[in-house]
Specification:
The protein is an alpha+beta fold. 16% of the residues lie in helices and 28% in strands. Strand 22 (371-374) and strand 23 form a beta hairpin. The protein starts with 28 loop residues before the first helix and ends with a strand. Bound molecules: ligand MIG. Ligand MIG binds at residues 429, 457-458, 494, 567-568, 631, 646-647, 680, 705. Ligand MIG is lined by residues 429, 457-458, 494, 567-568, 631, 646-647, 680, 705.
Length: 934
């Protein structure tokens, strides 16, 4: 049977016409003149480079006939099996413009043979053929404004029988190991032949952007050019400064600088906890060596790494877990309702790479400047030329875990949080007046839904003046906090950086007295608008200003405030360029930091603010562990604050993004993080909220929050089914509190994330590397959201368990939870708040044996707040379980710390495929607890 096609000729275009080359190339603009009707070319043309922010694309609107290109020649070859690859980028330029169609369609004469693009029925990506068959890729809504999707397709033309077609979306965000498209549809039942390709769009006046259309006969033909070492990269290398300087600063950690730069020339590190000295020479066998260069007014550091290395981290990012192929702008931005790769609220110039064999490395680019991290071909980091050179620090590890521990050695680890901060937290913008906050608290208790914290957003303030209280809404904040405390709640109150520019207002006056404000280039204090109207902004680079700021918390905290929420600290400035202050604003530095511009200090503004906030809160209540939540942050900022992921949206897309976003923040050294459960903007449907609280109960930071003007979002607002699901989900969290607290302590000690990607379970199992719906809490608990179909799971025993009596058959929201074979997970009782947890709480040890009939686990306990643990007042219990015949014996093998006990009654639950077996006894005294199993 003969197949026509392939070597494809485009009218007026540059052509290569031999099998095996890129066929479609270069300029589209001439082709468009054939169809002047409604097609419009953007500035430039389709240029076949990976999607660019502006220009070089094709805009098309309501042109159902399409922009046509002839495929001029054909190949008939019975001896080969021709393969055609097609790739292109597509995005909608309209907001929520539904009922529309856009795609690339292959024709034979006037007969539509095969197409791919946006399907107006489902609004999903679809692939369709002449026999009427269609295939949709679910949950790829293309009407989302500005979201770019790359689509690839591989067609294998068999000489006999139906064609094989493999299609995939976003191969970089979601690629299979060999970077081939995922096979999601095969065996197309028709013989295919084409002589024309059309780019079409129709219906509802929507404008679409097409970019980088490529056809080829090899996968590499349709790869974005940037993915290969293209001319640009060559250029950086050509102008590089060879040699460079290198030194070992810690075991398996090397620091690199360009040749003519010394450590005396670079700025002090804000990422590192303490300066590091040289301790040795970098061995010749060192794998990751950077190349330094300059090119078009930028300084570059480049690592030429094989594309099979999986990259993660890079801070707070939108999209999939795997970061290969992404370009991240490191610029803290109030990116309201984020949906693209412009900066988010935090910057972490850090990437972690995992090799095929599971060994790993991490790279810190130790510059605070606004910068860019480009992972489209290797690792390329750049700053503007006016920024000075900075150290590049490389960590080598035998596993990703080891790299994270080393990162913690360098940047410090998260301070031990108060236990109550691990509880569930309820927020909205804003609860007022005070009676409403009490009502929320009362309802949690009346409905027996566990909760630890009620949050107070900006409306508690007097005219949005920070450190003040509205007479009308909160005449007696101390009474409000006292009431919360009496019910087992804590209160967290917001403080923004903008200080109302108003003589007579105490914070303005005391700040002016110490000359606290960020200056314009002219030297006058910069004034910008935020909630209170005109504001001035503290210059947190100055130790004197930080000291003044810290001092403001003393009286504030005396109102019985338990924790503080620092928002808007990118800093966000209404009406400013990119929502912030001018780049030439001046910061004075001090304490080793040089004076500098906003461009230098923008990304650390939030971190330095929370450093000062934390110090003030600590000084106000020296015997308590501070809790600060921040929106903006920078690598190392976990030393001062936990973090949430800003203004997300109540959509499925944001629910799903939240998992890889939290995972990558954890992999960037920020273990204590989570998104707004339910989504901040717009109204969550009951179904969305039900799914969100079910998975949200397992986030390290678990808080529901919603914007002003949206519908209420407390667990009881969505009807009885969701209310009951929320109760169950949170009961699960509270039962897991001993395990969670132990995991946080491990993170505090070692720098490991709390929420971990699946590949941590088996770093050399390549099938786990892209899994970003299912995740681990600690090393022993796997959480499988109900919407995660066909999740990639590690080999070995992972036993499904019941935590709080949940029945997944009746409750459609609860995540499936599995325990690793070989683990003993400590559980507590269901409580309504961590305030109810007594010093020695009732314990259940959940045991899942491994293949050898063994298991072990650990429990960390201390007072839950304060610093006595630093004097040894804690207890670490090590448990193990051994099966002999039908008997499992569980013992405490070791107690460490000064809170050791002589006896402790516990319940033991052994779970396996066949059943659940219980026992009870004293885990410390005697010979251990024996349980008979089937
Ligand atoms: O411009 O304080 O991300 O959580 O509720 C909005 C009001 C200011 C943004 C935060 C959000 C908070 C809101 N804030």
């Amino acid at each position: 049977m003969l197949r026509s096609l392939l070597c494809i000729l485009l009218v007026g275009l540059f052509i290569t016409c031999s099998f095996g080359n890129v066929i479609l190339k270069e300029d589209f603009s001439s082709a468009v003149s054939d169809n002047p009707s409604k097609a419009k070319v953007g500035s430039g043309s389709l240029d076949f480079r990976f999607h660019q922010e502006s220009g070089n694309h094709l805009w098309i609107k309501d042109n159902d006939a399409g922009v046509r290109f002839n495929l001029a020649t054909s190949i008939d070859d019975e001896n080969t099996t021709p393969v055609l690859y097609i790739s292109f980028c597509l995005r909608s330029l309209n907001k929520s413009c539904k009922d529309k169609f856009a795609g690339v369609v292959l024709y034979d004469g006037d007969k539509e043979m095969f197409g791919m693009g946006n399907d107006y029925g489902s609004e999903n990506f679809a692939f369709w053929g002449p026999d009427g068959s269609t295939f949709q890729i679910g949950d790829t809504k293309t009407y989302v404004d500005d979201e770019v999707h790359m689509i690839i397709c591989k067609i294998v033309f068999h000489n006999d029988g139906p064609e094989d077609i493999e299609v995939g979306i976003d191969p970089f965000g979601n690629r299979s190991k060999d970077r081939q498209p995922k096979t999601i549809w095969t065996s197309y039942q028709t013989e295919l032949s084409f002589d024309q390709i059309r780019i079409r769009s129709g219906h509802n006046d929507c404008t679409w952007e097409f970019d980088e259309l490529r056809l080829g006969t090899d996968w590499s033909d349709v790869m974005p050019a940037d993915d290969k070492l293209g001319p640009d990269y060559q250029c950086y290398i050509d102008s590089s400064m060879p040699g460079g300087k290198s030194e070992i600063i810690l075991d398996n950690v090397a620091r690199f600088l360009p040749k003519n730069v010394s450590m005396d020339d670079v700025q002090p590190s804000l990422a590192l906890k303490a300066p590091r000295q040289k301790i040795g020479n970098v061995p010749g066998s060192w794998k990751m060596k950077p190349v330094f260069g300059t090119h078009e007014n930028r300084k570059y550091v480049f690592f030429d790494i094989p594309s099979e290395i999986d990259l993660y981290g890079t801070g707070e990012v939108v999209g999939g877990l795997l970061r290969n192929g992404h370009k991240i702008r490191l610029f803290n931005m109030d990116n309201y309702a984020y949906h693209d790769e412009r900066g988010l609220y935090q910057s972490h110039p850090w990437v972690i790479g995992v090799r095929l064999d599971g060994t790993a490395f991490g790279v810190i680019f130790d510059s605070t400047w606004i910068s860019e991290l480009n992972l489209r071909a290797g690792i390329l980091f750049s700053v503007p030329d006016r920024a000075p050179w900075f150290p590049t620090i490389v960590i080598e590890g035998s596993s990703p875990q080891e790299v994270m521990v080393r990162l913690g050695d360098l940047t410090g680890t998260m301070p031990m949080p108060p236990r109550w901060a691990l509880g569930y937290q309820q927020c909205r913008y804003s609860y007022f007046p005070d009676a409403r906050a009490r009502e929320i608290a009362d309802t949690f208790r009346a409905k027996q839904i566990p909760c630890d914290v009620i949050w107070f957003d900006i409306d508690y303030m007097d005219g949005f003046r920070i450190f003040t209280f509205s007479e009308e809404h909160y005449p007696d904040p101390k009474a409000t906090n006292n009431y919360l405390h009496s019910q087992g709640f804590k209160g967290i109150w917001m403080i923004d950086p903008g200080v109302k520019n108003e003589p007579g207002y105490s914070v303005y006056d005391s700040g002016t007295a110490v000359d606290a404000w960020v200056k314009q280039a002219s030297g006058k204090p910069f004034v910008g608008k935020v909630w209170p109207g005109d504001c001035v902004f503290p210059d947190f680079t100055s130790p004197d200003v930080r000291k003044w700021w810290s001092g403001l918390y003393k009286d504030f905290m005396a109102n019985g405030i338990d924790g503080v929420w620092n928002d808007m600290n990118e800093p966000a400035v209404f009406g400013g360029d990119e929502m912030t202050m001018p780049m030439d604003n001046k910061f004075r530095g001090g304490g080793g930091l040089q004076p500098g511009t906003h461009e230098q200090y923008h990304n650390v503004f939030g971190m330095l603010m929370t450093k000062a906030s934390r110090a003030g809160i600590q000084a106000a209540n020296p015997d308590k562990r501070p809790f600060v939540l921040t929106r903006a942050n920078y690598l190392g900022g976990h030393r001062y604050a936990a973090t949430w992921t800003g203004d997300n949206n109540a959509t499925w897309q944001h629910l799903k993004w939240a998992v890889p976003m939290s995972l990558n923040l954890g992999l960037s050294g920020q273990p204590f993080n989570g998104p707004d459960i339910g989504g901040f903007l717009s109204n969550a449907t009951p179904d969305l909220w039900g799914h969100w609280i079910a998975v949200g109960a397992f986030y390290p930071f678990s808080r529901s929050h919603t914007c002003a003007g949206t519908a209420n979002q407390e667990p009881w607002e969505f009807g009885p089914e969701v209310e009951s699901a929320a109760r169950t989900a949170l009961q699960r969290r509270y039962r897991l509190m001993p395990y969670l607290y132990t995991t946080f302590q491990e993170s505090h000690k070692q720098g490991l994330p709390v929420m971990r990607p699946m590949f941590f379970a088996d770093p050399d199992d390549l099938s786990l590397r892209m899994e970003d719906r299912v995740f681990l809490v600690g090393s022993d608990l796997m959480v499988i959201p109900r919407w995660a179909d066909n999740a990639a799971c590690p080999a070995g025993i992972w036993q499904a368990v019941t935590i709080a009596g949940e029945d997944l058959g009746k409750d459609k929201y609860q995540c499936e939870v599995k325990v690793r074979g070989g683990a003993i997970v400590p559980l507590g009782p269901i409580v309504q708040s961590t305030a109810e947890i007594p010093e020695t709480q009732a314990l259940t040890l959940m045991v899942v044996l491994d293949e050898n009939g063994k298991a072990s686990g650990r429990l960390y306990e201390d007072a839950g707040d304060g610093y006595d643990y630093r004097q040894g007042e804690y207890c670490i219990f090590d448990f193990d379980a051994v099966k002999k015949g039908n008997k499992v014996v569980v013992k405490c093998t070791k107690q460490t710390g000064s809170l050791t006990l002589d006896s402790r009654m516990v319940t033991v639950t052994v779970v396996d495929d066949k059943g659940t077996y219980h026992g009870k006894g004293d885990i410390i005294n005697g010979k251990g607890i024996a349980i008979m199993i089937d």
